[in-house]
Amino acid sequence: MRLPALAIYGMVLLSLFSSHVNSAELPDIIDRIRPSVVAVGTVMPLRRPSAQFMGTGFVIGNGNLVISNHHVIPDLIDVAKKETLAVFSGRGEKAKVHPAKIVKADPDHDLVLLEISNGPLQPMSLAAETEIREGEAIAFTGFPIGMVLGLYPITHRGIISAITPIVIPSNNSKNLTAKQIQRMRNRFEVYQLDGTAYPGNSGSPVYDAQSGRVVGVLNSVFVKESKETLLERPSGISYAIPVKYVHALLKDAKKQ
C-alpha cells in the first residue's frame, strides 16, 4: 500500500467525528449520497458487453476507496484477455469506468476494500461502530438489477429488525452445511432488515435514514447461506454486515 494511502483511515475518522451531520429528509439524503454509490465488476475489451456487473459498492475516505462485499469479486480474472477489475460511476447509460485493485480483503466478514483510478469520487461518511439500535430507520441504495438498464440506483427503506447471529442453530447436525460449520467458528452478529434486497444489491451502503451515515454493508448472499439454508422457501429478509467491521478493515489496511 502506498504511503499516501496510509492517511486514508484518518480522513475517514475525520469525516466521522468532525462537524455534526444534521438530520435531513430522505430524498435530500439520496440526492447527496447517489454519486457515492457505484457498481463493481470487470471490464474486458473484446467481450460483448465489455463490462460485467458483479455487485454494488460505495465510496469512502478520500474518494479513491470503495467498500463492497468480498463475494462480488471474481475468483479469477482473465489477465490474458486483458480483463480487469473495475468500478463504474455516474448515472444512466454513460457510466465512467475506474480501474480498481484490491487493497485489503476480509473474507470472514465478506468485505473488501478497493482503490480506484480516475478519481476522486464523492465519499460517504461512516457511522460510529455502535451507533445503530434495533428499530431505527435505515435505507439502502444500490443496483438490484445490475447495469441492464444503465446505472440507475434504487433505494429501499426499512428498519433494523433485529441484531442476530450470522448462523442459525440446527436441531440435527446432519442438516449443517460445510459453510455453516465454518462460520460457526467465526460467529458474529449481523443486522436483519425488513427491506427486500436482491443479489445485485450486495455491497450496497445501509445508512441511517436521518443522517445518511453508513451503518452497515448490505449482504444478500453470504449471510443467507448461513441463516436460511434450512428453509425450504427462503424469505425476503435482508441482512447487513455492521459498519464496525468496515472500521476494522480500514485499520488493518493502515497497518499493511
TrEMBL record:
InterPro entries: Peptidase_S1_PA (IPR009003), Peptidase_S1_PA_chymotrypsin (IPR043504). The keyword Signal applies. The keyword Signal applies. It holds the Pfam family Trypsin_2. Keywords: Signal. Residues 1-23 form the signal peptide. This is Trypsin-like peptidase domain-containing protein. It comes from Sedimenticola selenatireducens.
